[in-house]
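re: that chain from earlier
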Amino acid sequence: MKRGMWITRLLAAAVLGVTVGTQAQAGLLPTSVTVTPESGNYRWTYAIVLPTDMKLQSGNYFTIYDFAGYQPGGESAPPGWEFSASLVGPTPNLLNPNDDPGVWNLTWKYTGADIPNGQIGLGNFWAISSQNQPGTSASFTAETNRSSDGAVDRNITETTVPVGNSTPPPGVPEPTTLLLAGLGLPAIGLLRAARKKQ
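^ sequence. v structure.
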């Protein structure tokens, strides 16, 4: 009898696990990434969405891993978010993203009022990189809460990040061009001075 009871309980737990697993939805998600030249570097903009059955509360956050060429001071977010950069993590418990400890991770943490229901775009989040080449997908993790029961929801997915060597944005001269122009300016000045004396 005891053995039959254990088998019944295990089967019930398995069915419950499958049901919960199929109903669970991911937390914060990056839906698009755009790259635009900005002051000799590149602005990487991420549109972030809060899906259905999720809520956002103070302390929830997301991390974009291995953002090559990160340029401090050029990051931005909608009101109610604070930014930090670190070489390792932060990562929600129980998740195992790819994380190169030699490349910066970017994290935005929510500090605003609760958003009780999902299916909403949270706006654009961006950071500046010296790199403009999109690499293979990097890890993206987030921690939010389910709107149905308030339980913590942790998710991991992939997004695009900068890697590799940068190329100058359109209209920005190569360093060698600037050097040649700098060397030519004194010569032009001397030539003009010589003509005035004649």
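The mean pLDDT is 80.
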